[in-house]
Amino acid sequence: MSNVARFAAYAAAFEEAYASDDWKALEPFFDEGAVYEAGSEVFLGGRFEGRPAILGYFKAVLDGFDRCFDTRELELLEGPSEEGSTVRILGSASYRKEGFPDLVLVLEEFVTFEGEEIVRLEDRYEPAKLEELAAYIAAHGAALGFSLG
Fold first, then answer.
1. Which of 29, 44, 50, 63 has the lowest tally of Cβ within 10 angstroms?
2. 12 three-state secondary structure
3. How far lies 23's CA from each of 52, 61, 68, 96, 109, in Å?
């Protein structure tokens, strides 16, 4: 199986885990020592080492951010492309909640495989998009149930 196919299987399993809230379903995709660089030290980010830490982060950020909105729609903007053992995508997530302006996050994601498992996951956001996110959170975060902290 190619790394692009592995990535597609992982992405599908991630969305199933989001829907079911069963994050253990993602365990087979990650190496025990995998590292996740989640893109922003300010909000939605940090460095997570090890499968349990990564899966715990997924649950925490999705419960504490994504689920605060009525809808979450994902769109693939570029890719997937493969260079060596790394798959790259550029995608967006659009969040909507009645009574609030829409929020669109654009991120570049790199997924590195060793054999069948992910050993490194990295999200990158453009600085201007992080500034927009910070402004949105400052204006609406408390009412939506999250904050920059």
1. 63
2. helix
3. 10, 12, 19, 24, 20
The DSSP H or E segment spanning 37 is: strand 30-37
Task: For residue 93, list its beta bridge partners.
Answer: 74, 105
- Give dist(CA 25, CA 149) in Å, integer: 29
Model's pTM, two decimal places?
A: 0.91
pLDDT at residue 40, rounded to an integer: 74
What fold is seen in the domain 3-144? Nuclear Transport Factor 2; Chain: A, (3.10.450)
Q: Report the candidate in 114, 125, 130 with the shortest Cα–Cα distance to residue 6.
A: 114
CA distance 143 to 5: 40
Low-confidence ranges of the chain (pLDDT < 70): 41-43, 147-149
- Between the CA of residue 58 and those of 98, 122, 141, what are the distances in Å? 25, 13, 19
From residue 55, give the alpha-carbon distance in Å to each of 12, 48, 81.
15, 9, 25
φ/ψ bin of 146: left (φ > 0), alpha (ψ from -120 to 50), beta (otherwise): beta
